[in-house]
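Lecture 7 notes: from sequence to structure.
We start with the chain below.
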Amino acid sequence: AHMSDAAPGSATRHILFASIAFPGHVIPLARLAAEMRRRGYRVSFASQSSARRMLDGLDVQFIDLGPFPTPPHELWARLDDISRDRSMFRGILTLFNDVYLPAALPMYNALLPHVARDPPDAMVVDVGTLGAQDVALRTHVVTVLNNPSIEFSVDGPPVYIPAWGTGFPLSMTLWSRCLNVLFPRLLSVALTPPFMHLNKLRWEHSMPPHRSQHDLFQRARVLMNTAFGLDYARPLPPLVDAVG
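Predicted structure tokens for the same chain:
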């Protein structure tokens, strides 16, 4: 590794990256992990076993959290269904209920002992990796969220800009504009049952509940994997950085 860009004291600092084992979630973090290692930090990466091959060639410690809780054939069948479904609404709900949620508790149980034994100075966690976010909260580790897209918000952007998850073009019809206003609110209601399940898990581990889905981003530094010019112009919250 080239240490010319090393930050003072970086060799003694430990950065832990955590993601579910999907290429679209692992690869952005892998690039960040490689850069932090190049700058001299001690870097580890926690994920399910199948993510190991995505990190080949990186000089980082891999923390194997075991197999993904959903059998591979079932998982890929569900992901295939999501990709074929023309309804973004159903696709988002299926992804959350059938992929993110089942992985949360197994990842929490597998990662917590590692973090307790070797506490990192900071964690960089994929936004869909709910179990790792809870580990960071439980162990009081400074956390940065990595989000593959613009963050979901009930308040959303101005009404003339397509809301997250709608897939609408900028030149919306009157009907699309009405749906554009309703979509975030309907999605928030539809996500209430899985968030109630997450809050039950949090209560069992003596952690505060999510008051809303927005709590995933509340008061957190967020790295957003897009850049100006790749999406419609909109105001960004002060703690969100578009990093490409």
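Points to note: The first helix runs from residue 23 to 38. Residues 149 and 225 are 6 Å apart (CA to CA).
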